[in-house]
UniProtKB/TrEMBL annotation:
UniProt keyword annotations, A-Z: DNA damage, DNA repair, Hydrolase
InterPro entries assigned to the protein according to its UniProt record, in alphabetical order: MUG/TDG, Uracil-DNA_glycosylase-like, Uracil-DNA_glycosylase-like_sf
Organism domain of life: Bacteria
KW DNA damage (keyword) present: yes
Protein name: G:T/U mismatch-specific uracil/thymine DNA-glycosylase
Uracil-DNA glycosylase-like domain: residues covered: 8-153
PANTHER family for this protein: G/T AND G/U MISMATCH-SPECIFIC DNA GLYCOSYLASE, G_T MISMATCH-SPECIFIC THYMINE DNA GLYCOSYLASE
Length: 176
């Protein structure tokens, strides 16, 4: 199974980073393609997208300033299958991508993704007090996996914080 292609370009508003592709994503070649994954619904309900995108439209997010990648490229049934070596390699590659593309915000789709990336044991939901890559803000959000036990409303509320932050950021940029 091939890794799912990153959707990256310079100066994105938000780069969404997942753990790794699901087997369904590996089969289809599209991010968050597992029917049990709620990523596309969460983005829409949080006001990050005007409509609910489908996994096969993942590349279209670039046109609205959003990108997609993962900390580990290998598709697996669950994140528990990811090895320590894969996380170590993925962390270094992800830091290089973020430094090269300079998104305004990196949204980690799962607290564990951020912990693996940053090496920090603790992380609160939302904007992080210190960035790993200078000049790029780190935002931690719940995983969109159907396995997550949080209520959908609580997950959407955290993503709404990101949506509000982006709106304020864009308003400020228009004023400048």
């Amino acid at each position: 199974m091939e890794p799912v292609k990153d959707h990256l370009k310079e100066n994105l508003t938000v780069l969404f980073v997942g753990f790794n592709p699901s087997l369904r994503s590996g089969e289809t070649g599209h991010h968050f393609a597992n029917p049990n994954n709620r990523f596309w619904t969460i983005l829409h309900r949080a006001g990050l997208t005007e409509r609910r995108f489908r996994p096969e439209e993942d590349a279209d997010l670039l046109s609205i300033g959003y990108g997609l990648t993962n900390i580990v490229a290998r598709p697996t049934k669950s994140a528990q299958e990811i090895t320590k070596e894969e996380y170590n390699k993925g962390r270094l590659e992800l830091k290089k991508k973020i430094a090269a593309y300079q998104p305004q915000v990196v949204c980690f789709v799962g607290k564990g993704v951020y912990q693996q990336y940053s090496g920090r044991k603790e992380a609160a939901w939302g904007m992080q007090p210190a960035s790993v890559v200078p000049g790029v803000l780190d935002f931690v959000a719940p995983s969109s996996s159907g396995l997550v036990r949080m209520r959908m409303e609580d997950i959407v509320a955290i993503y709404k914080e990101l949506s509000l932050f982006i709106r304020k950021l864009q308003s400020k940029q228009k004023e400048e």
